């Protein structure tokens, strides 16, 4: 991808600027995403605005907030999935490893290869377990050593031992938790840099959820992970950094999401800087 001019959005007023904790020099990490006054609108109506923070490499960043605040909308900005929604427009600055992600010379398909997505509900293809994992590499032109690619992806997704003797069977024969790990393996097979997860455990039981959380902890050694979750305990357990997003009601009664606070997860959950964050994580609202 090549550098491209950054589009400057209209000025956006913020009654309460977000609290963003800057790491001390000894804590500095490589920046993968840098957002400055990021906003998303649908048919000209702002859904989320005023998002400014950095996402570091090989960390798990959790996005929390009440339903409808724009967490998933924001997440889709990171891999340009909002491009596929008619009427959606992204404003502000969003760079990926220093490159304007929405620059005119950036290939959105290549963006989605480098930045994989795992959705809320497991969505295996109506194919065999093997063909699910091999689908992406084949699409990218790989024809040789697919057996090794599939095995490595399933091993990384902690699923190999459970499926190695039934790779030709339908992916739909797997349990919900296994299907979600299969979808993670399918993502890993194309060797992404970043993995986005939109409520990946909401449809799973506690045992399957624990396996996904253990898997995320293992994967962050090599990948940058951003996860949307409504589960406060999951965010506190699994993430390194947390962003709290909420909604404001404007004078015209419309609602718009914005970033309230971004900090290390332990600090945000034990000593939040904004009373709205404390109110949400303690269940007083949201």
Describe this structure in words.
This protein has 286 residues and is of the alpha/beta class. It has a single domain (29-281), classed as P-loop containing nucleotide triphosphate hydrolases (Rossmann fold). The chain contains ten helices and eleven strands. Strands 1, 2, 3, 4, 5, 6, 7, 8, 9, 10 and 11 form an eleven-stranded mixed beta sheet that branches. Strand 2 and strand 3 form a beta hairpin. The termini are far apart.
What's the architecture in CATH terms? 3-Layer(aba) Sandwich
Mean pLDDT: 89
Low-confidence stretches: 1-15
Strand-residue proportion: 25-35%
CATH class: Alpha Beta
User: How far is the first residue's CA from the last residue's CA?
Assistant: 40 Å
Helix content: 25-40%
Could you please say which CATH topology applies here? Rossmann fold
Count of alpha/pi helices: 10
Our Rg estimate from Cα atoms comes to 19 Å
Please identify which CATH superfamily we are dealing with.
P-loop containing nucleotide triphosphate hydrolases
Biggest sheet: strands, sense, closure? 11 strands, mixed
Q: Any idea what the shape is?
A: globular
Given the helix and strand composition, which structural class is it? alpha/beta
> What are the secondary-structure elements, in order, as H or E?
EEEEHEEHEHHHHEHEHEEHH
Total beta strand runs: 11
Number of domains: 1
């Amino acid at each position: 991808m090549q550098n491209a001019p950054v589009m400057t959005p209209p000025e956006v007023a913020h009654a309460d600027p977000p609290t963003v904790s800057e790491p001390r020099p000894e804590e500095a990490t490589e920046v993968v995403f840098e957002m400055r006054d990021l906003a998303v609108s649908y048919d000209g109506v702002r859904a989320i605005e005023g998002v400014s923070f950095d996402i570091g490499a090989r960390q798990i960043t959790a996005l929390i907030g009440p339903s409808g605040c724009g967490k998933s909308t924001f997440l889709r900005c990171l891999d340009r999935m909002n491009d596929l929604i008619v009427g959606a427009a992204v404003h502000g600055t969003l760079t990926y490893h220093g490159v304007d992600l929405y620059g005119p010379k950036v290939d959105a398909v290549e963006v989605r290869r480098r930045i994989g997505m795992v959705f809320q509900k497991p969505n295996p293809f109506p194919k065999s377990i093997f063909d699910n994992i091999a689908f992406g590499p084949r699409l990218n032109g790989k024809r040789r050593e697919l057996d090794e690619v599939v095995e490595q992806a399933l091993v990384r997704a902690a699923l190999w031992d459970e499926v190695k003797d039934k790779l030709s069977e339908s992916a739909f024969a797997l349990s919900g938790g296994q299907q979600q790990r299969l979808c993670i393996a399918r993502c890993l097979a194309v060797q992404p840099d970043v993995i986005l997860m939109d409520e990946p455990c909401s449809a799973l039981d506690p045992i399957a959820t624990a396996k996904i959380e253990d898997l995320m902890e293992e994967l962050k050694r090599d990948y940058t992970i951003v996860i949307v979750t409504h589960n406060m305990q999951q965010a506190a357990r699994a993430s390194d950094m947390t962003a709290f997003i909420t909604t404001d009601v404007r004078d015209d009664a419309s609602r718009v999401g914005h970033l309230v606070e971004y900090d290390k997860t332990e600090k945000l959950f034990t000593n939040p800087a904004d009373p709205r964050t404390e109110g949400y994580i303690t269940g007083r609202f949201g």
